[in-house]
Amino acid sequence: MLDPKLLRSELNQIAQSLRTKGFELNCDEFLSLEAQRKELQLKAESLQQERNVYAKSMGKLIGQAKSKGEDIEPLKARGEELKKASTDADANLAKVQIQLDALLQGIPNIPDNTVPEGQNEDDNVEIRRWGEPQKFEFEAKDHVDIGNDLKGLDFDTAAKITGSRFAQMSGDLARLHRALTQFMLNTHIEEHGYKEVYVPYIVNAESLFGTGQLPKFEQDLFKLDDERNYYLIPTAEVPVTNIHRNDILEILPVKYVSHTPCFRSEAGSSGRDTRGMIRQHQFEKVEMVQFVHPDNSSEAHESLTSHAENILQKLGLPYRTVVLCGGDLGFSSAKTYDIEVWLPSQETYREISSCSNFTDFQARRMKARFRNIEGKTEFLHTINGSGLAVGRTLIAVMENYQQADGSITIPEVLRPFMGGLAVIS
Fold it and tell me: Scanning 220, 231, 242, 312, which has its CA 20 to 30 A from the CA of 137?
């Protein structure tokens, strides 16, 4: 959520900046509600002060009236009148504040000034590449055919169990999927300095509000048919970031890594990537989350992105990194790098990680703060990124390490997790 003080002082500049995200801020509505809030707040404060003054003097006034034999009921009536007026003023202020809060909750984060202009993913800007795509001396298969030939990837059984956009893995492919998870976690813990956390896979609405999925993106979530208002997590970002909701941290940075399944309805993606594991309702991800000082968030964002890239480099998978343009930038993000891995079957790069700096946007929604050197509390900055999406990494390994005979060579860094196995055939 944006700082209301910033909106009041720089409304036109913010409105202009948000247009790069394709968002049109209703300045007139904000100014109208803000004027109403200010007027009602002054009235409520004035009435409360008048009520307090009268309440302090009421006992004395009643005593004087009694001593003179005067009727004290008018004095009591005046007290009740002030009480009702104050209560009504508070109620009117609360109604306007609810409208103002609803408006503020729907405003996306301000793009960083380094974010390029553009309308969609076609306008994203490539900033670097690593590795050379392999040229096969045979026709490269996609992961679906490779997995089917190895009898390790089964979509029909998954559809029988549940429905479309689910997968069942077995044998060495299932083991390779698990090996990737272990390799990613170990690397982030041992080399990049993250602390592993295990978190719930079901969260409440407050958690999803904190990270920005609610109320705007409820259609993308799986909501449980439960009176407790529970949801399946769309990413570990939600439970991990909410670890410090309503907290005041004494030491920064704090760096967490977590492996979880993720559940997404994929609303609005009908017809896209229906073949294979590219776009699933259930998939797994290793997620990195950092809580950092506002002065260090840009540097930390670059560092976190390099941690995700390091996984791909160790696996020997060619990739490119792009910075998202304003029109492709997420609701809560101020700046995002997408890392895209090379898929031989498609002869293109596909997203495998998204690394974002949310500045203080999520922290304001969650009331996540830190204590500065002066002992005062400030909102911290949050950063996260996939390190990596496990299923898509499995796809990339299968396709980039496929052999002419249909087997898969296992990258050397994964062999210790596979009991020394070098080839899946």
Answer: 312
